Amino acid sequence: MELQASKAQAVPVPSVWRFTPLGLLLVICLILPWLASPLWIRIATEVLMWAGLAQSWNIIGGYTGYLCFGHGAFFGLGSYVTGLMMVNLGWPFGIGLLFSGILASLLAVIIGYPTLRLRGAYFAIATWAFGEMVRQIATILDVTGGAFGLQLPSFLNLRYFYYVMLAVTGLTYLTTHFLLERARFGYKLLAIREHEEAAEMVGVDTVSIKMKAFALSAFFPGVLGGIYAYWVTYIHPDSVLGAQLTDFMVVMAFLGGIGSLWGPFLGAVVVQLLQRILWLFWGEGTFYLVIIGVAICAVVLFIPNGLIGLMESRFLSPREAVSQLKKTFKW
Amino acid sequence: MILQSNDLVKSFGGVTAINHLSLTVEKGTVFGIIGPNGSGKTTFFNLVNGVYTPDSGRVTFDGKNITGLRPHRIAELGIGRTFQIPAPFTKMTLLENVMVSTFIRASSLKESRKMAWEILELVRLDDKGNTQVANVTLEDRKRLELARALGTKPSLLLLDEVMAGLTPAEVKGAIELIRSLRTRELTIIVVEHIMDVILSLCDRIAVLDYGQKIAEDIPDQIVNNKEVIRAYLGERYSARN
Questions:
Q1: Calpha distance A94→A232 (Å, rounded)
Q2: Residue B1 pLDDT > 70, yes or no?
Q3: Residue B171 domain flag
């Protein structure tokens, strides 16, 4: 019994102080639109959107270890679904968002059924092809407006979109916290990432768990895509289905630290702010890609746990780093 | 009788790994399977716990036909299994590793944490519960393999060379550990190359060669069986006895 008691103490006890940084962040997020200029509200909204997207990708890519390179498709699908529902059916924004999320999840299940059998690079390639396919379909269909895109009714209220984005991204993080960090579901995902056969052998229904994870990770991009469409009022295949969208989710998650709750948030803040600051002060729109490319190489090689991991772990030697990567993604 | 395989056949391409194999294991016993490398021991385990589906034949566990079920279903029904080469969840702690396997028996995260601590205590890993797998030795990983299999609360435990790679002293500890697991409720099937381990643990031993059962008997008879000496033990071993 004494042993048991001492072990119980090993589990970190939640204290009031632990939540101070989180509370501070929340307060800043809530009052920001009343302090910042319209430009910075826009930038903050963008950052929030990317934080949500990076976290969504993190659910399947970071926690489950399945590198999805077609995640932008769920975002694009959400944009078009919300847009089309509002334009053609006159449905309210909120209903459109809900449908966007659900349809994105449904699509994930359909795509996941054949592709989640693949591992490592093969899964990445298959999902990339899927992403391209969705983009091509949006380009040739009449209902989506094809390459000309889709014009939504405009509603110019920056604070409104900021708060909607904050709510949905907040929900993404809450879901990740409660479902992945504090529940059996999360442990099962980690087990699948670390050794899928072993997970199956100790009773984890790997097929169904992977599918659920993929569906969950597609839901939020669907909703965020819907918000984005109404916010910017005009979408076309390249703006909401471009390969860059997926790339940035991956980059942000990796830079911040995959498989962690706050890594993607940190990554999104750093990458998106860097991009905007370079653009604001130097009028530069593409050079940041070079900086980010170099940064991501450095992170992947030397700090595989990302920026968030810097706080707790040491740097790896290049050789250790490569073997770490191979292990994580079964190459 | 807890496990029965009837006329199992499994081939890979042109190689018949398991060739019309029929085995019966009685409840509460420790059953040994020996044989040369490639004789089908691990394949047999893979057929029992659902990693492979047999080409023909059937596997019956506790009166139920489990042929072709997926491994996670078979784990739920009560067959636990260890890997020959430890396959831990590397970036998790030992406790978390065992917790994952208790999920099918526990109703909450709290309960499975408690169960996992108990099992870690049983295999004497409780002092390393909060350590990452990456930081423990091979012996500990082998014990963890066992702990994870026990986490599913099996009534049949398949041990695939749990002693391979251990030092003699560690082997002794492992034998003690497996002995301590023996109860009327837990049946154990052991695949092992170390004959002393097999002989000291098992009630019955089956010998496989080219996927076929060439002998099955009590340990004392097995070591004197001509066929077994020819196929596996070698003349030197029989002379020593």
A1: 16
A2: yes
A3: no
Give the nearest partner residue to A201 out of B49, B117, B126, using CB atoms: B49
pLDDT of residue A6: 41
Q: Do A202 and B75 touch (CB under 8 A)?
A: yes
- A293 in a domain, yes or no? no
Chain B residues touching A190 at Cβ < 8 A? 89, 91-92, 96
Distance from the Cα of B41 to chain A's closest Cα (Å) equals 18
- The CA distance from A278 to A286, in Å, is 9
Q: Token pair for residue B110?
A: 């709290």
pLDDT tier for residue A9 given thresholds of 50, 70 and 90: very low
Check CB contact under 8 Å for B72 and A200. yes
ipTM exceeding 0.85?
yes
On whether both B143 and B162 belong to a single domain, the answer is no
Domain interval for residue B101:
85-153
Residues B117 and B98 occupy one common structural domain: yes
> What's the pLDDT score for residue A74?
97
* A190 touching chain B per CB within 8 A: yes
Largest CA distance in chain B: 56
Q: What is the pLDDT of residue B165?
A: 83
Residue A306 binned pLDDT confidence (cut-offs 50, 70, 90): confident
CA distances from A81 to A51, A115, A314, B187 (A): 22, 24, 45, 57
Same domain, B125 and B28: no
pLDDT of A15 = 61
In a domain, B179, yes or no: no
Rounded mean pLDDT of A160-167? Answer: 96
Residue A250: the pLDDT is: 92
Domain shared by B213 and B109, yes or no: no
The mean of the pLDDT values for chain A is 89
Across the interface, whether the CB atoms of B109 and A182 are under 8 A apart is answered: yes
Q: Read off the tokens for A238.
A: 């390249």
Q: Which one of B91, B98, B125, B160 makes the best mutation probe of the A interface by having the most chain A beta carbons within 10 Å? A: B91
In a domain, B147, yes or no: yes
- The whole-angstrom distance between residue B65's C-alpha and the CA centroid of its chain comes to 20
Chain B residue with minimal CA distance to A191?
Answer: B89
Q: Clarify whether residues B59 and B159 are in a common domain.
A: yes
Taking the model in full, what pTM does it have? Answer: 0.89
Nearest CB partner across the interface for B72, out of A182, A194, A204: A204
Q: State mean pLDDT over A137-152.
A: 90
Q: A126 lies in a domain?
A: yes
Question: A312 to chain B: which residues are within 8 Å by CB?
Answer: none
C-alpha dihedral, B101 to B105 to B107 to B112, nearest 10°: -40
Please report the pLDDT score of residue A295 as a whole number.
82
- What is the SS3 assignment for B229? helix
* Alpha carbon of B149: minimum distance to chain A alpha carbons (Å): 7
How many folded domains does chain B comprise? 2
Q: Which of B79, B90, B100 to substitute to test the interface with A, most A CBs within 10 Å?
A: B100
- What's the CATH number where B203 sits? 3.40.50.300
> Under a CB-based contact definition with an 8 Å cutoff, are residues A221 and A74 in contact?
yes
Q: Based on the domain organization, do B162 and B231 belong to the same domain?
A: yes
Q: How many domains does chain A have?
A: 1
B143 & B159 share domain = no
Instruction: Indicate yes or no: CB of B88 within 8 angstroms of CB of A198.
Output: yes
The whole-number pLDDT of residue B193 equals: 86
